[in-house]
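User: two proteins, same treatment. go.

Assistant:
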Amino acid sequence: MLCPYCDYPETKVLDSRKLQNGRVIRRRRECLHCRQRFSTKESIQILQLTVIKRNGDKEEYRPEKIKQSLSIATNKRLKKHQLDDLIRKVEGEIFAKGKKQIESKKIGEIILRRLQKMDEVSYLRYASVFKSFGSGRRFVKEVGKI
């Protein structure tokens, strides 16, 4: 680990703490040259996953897209820790499949299934975009399923 202050290549770890239920480790470090202290975070880096979009285009998996869409759908309905937990569970299910490619439709279905159990209003908000409700009738039909 290079020191961010002097670029010296050796540091010592002063303290380590688990974050996000052990999925991230925060380390407090000290440069052996300039004695400046700084923090780093280590997290699991998932190997490349390609998402196949509805139109057939392919793009690299970006977790921030899931976080953004869920933040909009759950707008103040779930607490931050509930949202973070939901995202971890969705990603865990995606990566548990062990595939290098996944359709965006499959990701949306996983999200819908988990959201429906947590919050019906958030589920409807997400479903209205994911399923492209074109009319109020389709929305009412979806409400009837709940």
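Protein 2:
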Amino acid sequence: MSKYIAYPKNVAPKICDNEWTLLRDDALPEDFSLLGPVIVSYAYWKNHQEELQEKSTNMALGIFFSVTDDVVQDQAIIQHGMSHWSLIAVDFPIFRDGRGFSTATILREQYHWEKELRAIGDVLIDQLIQMARVGFDAFVLREDQQLDVAIAQLQRFPVKMQNDWRGVRTLLQGAV
């Protein structure tokens, strides 16, 4: 079973077993509820909403956004779907493509997504601190990345100089 890093707000990061099956293509099995918790593409969700809404009552369902999905234009569809999704993932097709950071910020700040927000794809250790700041609280790292090094990276800086999704900067906490 693959592993991922869970890093919820106000909790230390930890390595967890990944029970979710990521279904990247639209050729899904007829009865994919046998796979356990599944993550389907947002494009697939848009085309099969009614069927998936029924299935989401009996199984854990997540979706992933690609960098080409327009989360601003599809606001109504996304906000309606959020009640059916157990997690949202954002796919990073290549580490230098930063559009997923904007998607995460919109989901957390504008749409008030409170459940798990997972970074998938070409996710590197060097990106984790910035990803955590904009709202990601779970990370599936690229296969060549070391999970124990990633945990150390997330715990590297005990003082925060700016406000972010996780809270206010360290220097203001005592003054509030």
